[in-house]
Design a protein that fits this description.
Length: 496
């Protein structure tokens, strides 16, 4: 039977296994000990292997508080325990504490996995936790340094940190963290802190993909050998317990689920790998496409780098100057037999004549025609590269600038007022926009075109503005009544 005995504080030593690294509220605990005159709950210790003193199993805060108020001893229960038993007791004790940081809890779980031969399922059964709880705690240990720091400083809650930590690389996690921090709306729903729901939506939109929409064979393990097949990949939502919320979300009945959240067992959580597989697939498939499959025939090299075909001309009306040196015609001429007809293969005659026509066209072409031809060739080569890559923020901004410069001045003035960027500064303002803001800007361009009304279009229905209002469920009774009255008036006039 264990007995409680008072041990000198200088005989009590910190445990090397204790996952707890932060000790808060020591001064309050010390004040309570002084007020009570003693420590109520005994400290669990075990004899040290070197025979010198005792190792604290749990009760580290109480020992620190007792030292803070210069107590000489503390009540202790001495128990012979193995390292594995000590680790288990510490984790069990910490699970009952509200002030233990989840990262420290995760480190305790990992210590038992690495040292005691247990797995996550064993830990779930041992401590009465769900598999998802244990796997999610362990996933915190995959957080990159920047993400850990955001969690430790309470900038991110545990659930939000787990969402980001599930991204398979430190680079992706850092990108996600930056993406979220730049999104002002993420803080609106949570009193200035980053909203979990907004983070969930952003990560689903930007850092997950639906495998059912892949243009490549997701079961092909040879497409990208180092990654293997998507169906067997641990980054597929259906293959890892920590993604249980994504799998269950599809069947969850909780009001109307946001359509922007990808769910189910076939969600890819590695957009970089997905993009690389798509690129490799396109490189395989695009060269084999038939000529009719694309309205633009993409050439493999610029015209100036192509070898000029040998001109073999059987039409003597153009003179000898058009004959290629060393040609059959030259050989016949040198032999003196000028009446002999020179045989010219059809395969050689056709490109030769095409070359003649090109030279003739080039000679008569205007500078604008030549410039257009050069730009068309550049367009084909740019499009070939763009076809093999994912759409990027650059693409979005380029389209936004084109739209901005294409709209009428009065609509551009509406946008300049909306974005408060000053006259003539709208295009440069696009360069500092986040991609999500650029997408919103394109929407603004479409609906702003229905705002300023001229004398000639006062009777036109603001179709884009009304469509957006209907989609976002914004009431438009006044505008609708005016539109209906104009329609009714036009009908009446038509009747007469």
């Amino acid at each position: 039977m264990e007995t409680i005995q008072y041990l000198a504080l200088d005989q009590l030593h910190e445990s090397p296994f204790n996952p707890r690294r932060t000790f808060t509220g020591i001064d309050e605990l010390a004040a309570n000990i002084v007020a009570e005159g003693r420590i109520h709950q005994p400290i669990l210790v075990r004899p040290r292997s070197d025979g010198v003193g005792f190792e604290i199993v749990f009760g580290h805060r109480r020992v620190r508080a007792a030292r803070f108020v210069d107590f000489a001893s503390a009540p202790c229960m001495v128990r012979d325990m193995t390292d594995a038993q000590s680790r288990s007791a510490q984790v069990a004790e910490n699970l009952q504490r509200a002030d233990v940081h989840p990262l420290e809890e995760a480190e305790g779980f990992m210590s038992m996995i690495e040292n005691d031969g247990l797995d996550a399922d064993d830990l779930a059964a041992k401590f009465g936790k769900s598999r998802t709880y244990v796997y999610n705690r362990l996933k915190l240990l995959d957080a990159c340094p920047a993400l850990r720091n955001a969690h430790l400083t309470n900038e991110l809650g545990t659930e939000a940190t787990i969402l980001i930590a599930r991204l398979p690389s430190a680079d992706l996690q850092e990108k996600a963290l930056e993406y979220i921090e730049q999104d002002a709306q993420a803080r609106l729903d949570n009193g200035g802190k980053i909203s979990y729901r907004r983070i969930q939506t952003l990560l689903s939109e930007r850092f997950s993909l639906d495998l059912s929409e892949a243009i490549f064979d997701v079961a092909d393990a040879e497409l990208l050998p180092e990654a293997g097949s998507c169906t067997d990949c641990w980054k597929r939502s259906g293959n890892a317990p920590e993604f249980a919320d994504i799998v269950e979300l599809r069947n969850k009945v909780d009001g109307q689920r946001s359509g922007s959240l990808r769910s189910g067992a076939d969600v890819c959580t590695d957009p970089d790998c997905f993009a690389e597989k798509k690129r490799v697939h396109l490189l395989r498939v695009v060269p084999r496409l038939p000529q009719a499959a694309s309205p633009i025939a993409i050439e493999s090299e610029p015209p100036e780098q192509r070898a000029e075909p040998v001109v073999t001309e059987d039409d003597t009306s153009h003179g000898d100057a058009h004959r290629a040196p060393g040609s059959t015609a030259d050989s016949v001429a040198s032999s003196g037999d000028e009446d002999q007809e020179v045989p010219t293969p059809a395969s050689a005659t056709k490109p030769a004549r095409a070359q003649q026509r090109r030279k003739s066209i080039d000679a008569d072409a205007t500078p604008a025609t030549l410039a257009s031809r050069s730009r068309l060739d550049l367009l084909k080569r740019v499009r070939e590269r763009a076809l093999a890559t994912e759409r990027s923020a650059f693409d979005l901004r380029l389209v936004a600038k084109f739209v901005c410069e294409s709209i009428a001045w009065r609509h551009r003035a509406t946008l300049e007022g909306l974005y408060d960027c000053g006259i003539g500064n709208l295009a440069s303002h696009i360069d500092v926009m986040h991609p999500s803001e650029v997408a919103l800007f394109l929407l603004d361009c479409a609906i702003a075109a229905n705002v300023m009304v001229g004398e000639d279009d006062v009777e036109e229905k603001p179709a884009y503005l009304l469509a957006a209002a209907d989609h976002y469920q914004v009431s438009t009774p006044l505008l609708q009544r005016r539109t209906d009255k104009r329609t009714q008036s036009q009908t009446i006039k038509g009747d007469f």
